[in-house]
Design goal:
- It is a single chain.
- By secondary structure, the chain is of the alpha+beta class.
- The chain contains 17 helices and 24 strands.
- The strands form 6 sheets. Strands 1, 13, 14, 15, 16, 17, 18, 19, 20, 21 and 22 form an 11-stranded mixed β-sheet that branches. Strands 4-5-12-11 form a 4-stranded antiparallel β-sheet, covered by helices on one side. Strands 6-7-10 form a 3-stranded antiparallel β-sheet, with no helix packed on it.
- α13 links the parallel β19 and β20.
Length: 569
């Protein structure tokens, strides 16, 4: 800017000196519509069907449009679907698609949606979030089926509902019920009637289904590209998308570059011409880059600097519908003992963590589902109605439970490992809790830090003992927090199973009455907090670094950043 201004002044001087001509300086140059954002980590994937974390979603949301898109009030608005009708029983949705195009110039069709949803459900893809499509008729049966040759069969179970297995070549494998074949083209309730019409049949009425159609798992993929290339999402040249921005560069563990998508159906609404995503994991480094003008918005803020940055206006604390928690591998001793799990949970000083470490207005979590979700009665909040389930820093009860489990004052308790992903904040919290467990219970743990993708892999495969986790709601309903812990759930990750809990979640999903739904979900949360496969620690807020030059920045309470309507001033 300075260089350009100097040249203008020199030109004015020369013209005035030699010709005596009065020159009016040109109007202020237009601001470059380019923004730099720190994502904070390398994404584990950018395939919408395989996405399971906020970092991945915050890439996919820029490059993809689903049937709907969530607005600034967390409400679904028409996107690729320009309109829809819903049957009286609220189980059949018919979507009419608008004229929209993939970045390769081909039309986005209802056939792409049908293919994408069935692909996400396919048992061979093993998508963690496939259960978001269990609301679709036949979705769960297909996802849990067994493929034999080119056909799919229902998983055989015994009289108690336990999966049947057999040993083949020394390996235990599930048994398929050969009498119950599942035909994906006939037995799943999503069907393209033609290129512009998608019909969806649900298992039961689902009040938040339109919100789900904006979720990454339900995004379309270009069938012509994806069906012929398993690695389509690993290379930007094959990453064919339909959203407001197009991914043009991906330097792993460094940065991503997006440009305005010229084929986007609503391109007139998009002001930014370029977005750069950085992957700086160290919060202090990110802050230095922000202060030197190398980034405009950052997803991570050094906790020690947060109060000062908020006061100066360089950081904002946004609402966030989420819970920070630790999870147990309940399949491994001693964490298969509920008394041990409860002892570790009660020995934590949550208020101490939120006041001395996080400092961002977070509140101690004495339950799992956070505040901010409506209950059945008008104006009520699910958390307020549900209350709390335990006391913070209840050392006496914790010591008593540990003694009952056979480890008085921690004697004989095996050393274990606490796993977390790369972050100074996670490190500080882990070190504090490590010290609390040592001081309050006499037990010892070591800390293990892993890069995001490896950490997710180890969690998903139960390759841990205790691990950090965080869950941000996918939609505004308690079910988004509770249904993940059903037996075998794609995001369960603890090995936890309770059939009464499963039944309550199934009841809530099949129930229309708001009062009955919420009653079932409250009962389910009570079981979860009694069995304690997880330790809720605090309810999130969302501190972000943001320069005043960024306008219309939007990050929802669900954690999703949407750059579609943002611009630079």
């Amino acid at each position: 800017m300075r260089k350009a201004l100097s040249l203008v002044l020199i030109a004015v001087f020369l013209v005035s000196f030699f010709g005596g001509v009065s020159v009016v300086p040109s109007a202020k140059a237009a601001v470059a519509q380019q923004v730099t954002y720190n994502l904070g980590t390398e994404p584990a994937t950018i395939d919408p069907a395989l996405s399971q974390g906020i970092p991945e979603a915050n890439i996919i949301l820029q490059t993809m449009d689903g049937l709907t898109r969530i607005d600034s009030k967390n409400m679904p608005q028409p996107a690729i679907a320009k309109s829809w009708t819903i049957s009286k029983d609220r189980r059949t949705y018919t979507f009419t698609l608008r004229d929209a195009y993939w970045t390769n110039g081909t039309p986005v069709t209802a056939y792409d949606f049908e293919y994408a949803w069935k692909r996400a459900l396919s048992p061979e893809l093993a998508a963690s979030y496939a259960y978001q499509l269990y609301y679709v008729y036949g979705g769960e049966a297909f996802n849990t089926s067994i493929k034999v040759g080119s056909k799919y069969y229902v998983q055989a179970v015994d009289a108690k509902g336990n999966p049947l297995t057999k040993t083949v070549g020394g390996k235990v494998v599930p048994v398929a019920n050969m009498a119950k074949e599942i035909n994906p083209s006939k037995n799943i309730g999503v069907k393209a009637l033609d290129a512009k019409t998608l019909k969806v049949y649900l298992q039961s009425p689902t009040v938040y289904f339109l919100n789900l159609t904006a979720f990454p798992t339900l995004m379309p993929v270009c069938k012509a590209v994806v069906s012929t290339n398993d690695k389509w999402a690993a290379d930007v040249t094959n990453y064919v998308t339909d959203g407001p921005f197009k991914l043009t560069q991906w330097s792993h563990n460094d940065k991503m570059t997006f440009v305005k998508n010229p084929t986007y159906w609503d391109k007139a609404a998009v002001k930014l011409t370029k977005i750069t995503y950085l992957m700086v994991t160290d919060e202090s480094t990110a802050l230095s880059m922000f202060q030197s003008g190398q980034m405009d918005v950052g997803s991570t803020v050094p906790l020690s600097e947060l109060p000062k940055l908020v006061a100066s206006g360089d950081a904002k604390i946004l609402p966030y519908l989420g819970t920070y928690y630790y999870m147990f591998n309940t399949t491994k001793k001693p964490f298969n003992d509920v008394r041990v799990r409860k002892a570790l949970a009660l020995a934590i000083d949550r208020k101490g963590i939120t006041t001395a470490i996080t400092k961002g207005g977070q509140t101690p979590a004495l339950a799992y589902v956070p505040n901010g979700i409506a209950d059945a009665a008008a104006g009520s909040d699910f958390r307020t109605v549900g209350g709390t389930f335990y006391k913070d820093k209840d050392i006496a009860t914790a010591k008593s439970l540990l003694a009952q489990a056979g480890y008085p004052n921690g004697k004989g308790f095996p050393s274990f490992t606490l796993l977390f992903n790369t972050s100074n904040a996670h490190q500080s919290i882990a070190e504090a809790i490590q010290q609390m467990w040592k001081q309050n219970l006499g037990i010892t743990c070591t800390l293990k830090v892993e890069e995001w993708g490896v950490y997710l892999d180890d969690r998903n495969n139960l390759n841990y003992q205790v691990a950090r986790a965080g869950w941000i709601g996918d939609y505004m309903d308690p079910n988004t927090f509770l249904d993940m812990f059903v037996t075998g759930g794609g995001n369960n990750g603890t090995g936890y199973a309770n059939k009464t809990y499963d039944a309550l979640i199934a009841k809530a999903k099949a129930t229309v009455s708001p009062t009955a739904r919420m009653a079932a979900l409250h009962a389910a949360e009570k079981i979860l907090m009694t069995d304690m496969p997880i330790i809720p620690i605090y309810f999130y807020t969302n501190p972000v670094l943001i320069t005043k030059h960024v306008k219309n920045f939007y990050q929802s309470t669900l954690g999703f950043v949407d750059w579609k309507n943002a611009y630079m001033s």
